[in-house]
Amino acid sequence: MNRTNRGDSPMKRALDEARKAGLRGEVPIGACLVLDGAIIAAAGNETRVSNDPTAHAEILVIRRACAELGQERLVGADLYVTLEPCPMCAAAISFARIARLYYGAQDPKGGAVESGPAYFQSAICHHAPDVYSGLAEAESAQMLRAFFAERRGQAITTG
Amino acid sequence: MNRTNRGDSPMKRALDEARKAGLRGEVPIGACLVLDGAIIAAAGNETRVSNDPTAHAEILVIRRACAELGQERLVGADLYVTLEPCPMCAAAISFARIARLYYGAQDPKGGAVESGPAYFQSAICHHAPDVYSGLAEAESAQMLRAFFAERRGQAITTG
């Protein structure tokens, strides 16, 4: 299997969702959930617009895919995310029994897959997906850098 | 401040929510969120009824309290939970800027506060609440033990 080709389209959708999130003032992170070759849900962060600190892109696509399918678990699903998931999202990915996780940039400050507690390798993790990182890494990271640089710029000019 | 007396009533509410969750076939865990002395939200697990693997009691009270108050953070809030939070809930507690976490029983198999990765002490955690554990510990643990013993019994009789 050519994993790169297989991942191209859902990762592009995740990047589109990240871009849209940034345009509405959210941290530009996007996710896309695929089951049996079909995109079931896609979202960018919505913590601000929803007043919900749990509304990370990954949580949203898991919740929406489960609602769409009427099931509590997403066995066999692929999740594409533009940034390394945080502990909240990593645990949700495990609870949902997602089979494969593809992500873009690493997040040494907040990630929990390769960074920090490396949740999927910990003794309290009872289901770990296969993990593929580095997809569209440069584009994902650039979008985040530009977003935070602009916010710092605004803070300086309005501070 | 007498922390035990202060915690009595919200923890009783969390235990009530845990009991109700168990009666509807959910893992019996309950939570209650208090701000400025008032209970803003209380819930038990709803993962089965909602087909939502993220619908842990803590996530639900955080989401509902934020919706109720129209804000993304719960600065100064107290969260009462019957069981040690998992990594998903621990990270959500941090993101919501909850000030104090009170919980009942420890969860060595799935908890992330004192057990496993001890998220609040990790380098990727940027806000940690004050933590008080052991409130109503025996009652919380007994409810979970009875629930899982009954499920094992059912599995044996129907298996």
3D architecture notes:
Chains A, B: Its EC number is 3.5.4.33. Chains A, B: Homodimer. Chains A, B: This is tRNA-specific adenosine deaminase. The structure is a homodimer of 159-residue chains. Chain A has one domain (12-150): Cytidine Deaminase, domain 2, CATH 3.40.140.10. Residues 1-7 of chain A have low confidence and may be disordered. In chain A, a hairpin with a 2-residue loop joins strand 1 and strand 2. Chain A has four helices and five strands. Chain A is globular. A five-stranded mixed beta sheet of chain A has the order 2-1-3-4-5. The first copy, chain A, has 159 residues and is an alpha/beta fold.
